[in-house]
């Protein structure tokens, strides 16, 4: 991926950071965007230390004008965007559907799903003109299962898989591959928040809930963020040029 240009949304921390750094290690120049400037600047510094170009851009990817400005910034800096990784997302509420507010529902769908639509729509014209490109959507195994107490999140990830499959058909004639990566419970601060919220809702300890997640996998362990990033690197590379419209689980063999 030497001198390929990449956008990673939500690239300042967690899985997004792992993806951005892994792509830079393979030679890519990276624009990372998100809401938290401090983490973006820190991650951009790590990418620059690898000898690659890095741009940190504060952006709410659920807002159309901010997305277009972010993509314009990437095009101005790099000239082209070869790869888009739609990683931005929030966990949303953990509660029964009857207790979910309209604001919580709409915010989760906007950040987790609408943002991917906006970003893809913004980068596609120059990919189509060039006749190549990669779009990789970070969905979740929650998009293939019933996920009690997490309805907005699950629905957003089911939608991400549908967007991936549909866009792959539309973009395929232009030699653009569109795929999704579906992480399972992934070690890190975000997963810990999910566990803690679920524990509070169920009246259980965080340790009990964590065991439930781990015991639901074949490997009996959380997913390593580096393994999600490695899958994205493969899908972003020319070695995956014949793969499109697929949703690849990186989930420790979670039982669906």
Plain-language structure description:
- The chain is an alpha/beta fold.
- Helix 1 crosses helix 8.
- It has 2 domains: 207 residues, Rossmann fold; 38 residues, no CATH class.
- The protein contains 8 helices and 7 strands.
Poorly predicted runs of 5 or more residues: none
Helix/strand/pairing category: alpha/beta
From the 3D coordinates, which CATH architecture of the largest domain would you assign?
3-Layer(aba) Sandwich
CATH superfamily of the largest domain: NAD(P)-binding Rossmann-like Domain
Which fold name corresponds to the CATH topology of the largest domain?
Rossmann fold
Number of domains: 2
Beta-strand content bin = 5-15%
Q: What is the H/E order?
A: EHEHEHEHEHEHHHE
Tell me the helix content.
40-55%
Main pleated sheet: 7 strands, parallel
Number of helices: 8
Shape verdict: globular
**CATH first level of the largest domain:** Alpha Beta
**Rounded mean pLDDT score:** 97
- The beta-strand count equals 7
Radius of gyration: 18 Å
Distance between the termini: 34 Å
**Reading side by side through the largest sheet, how are the strands ordered?**
3-2-1-4-5-6-7
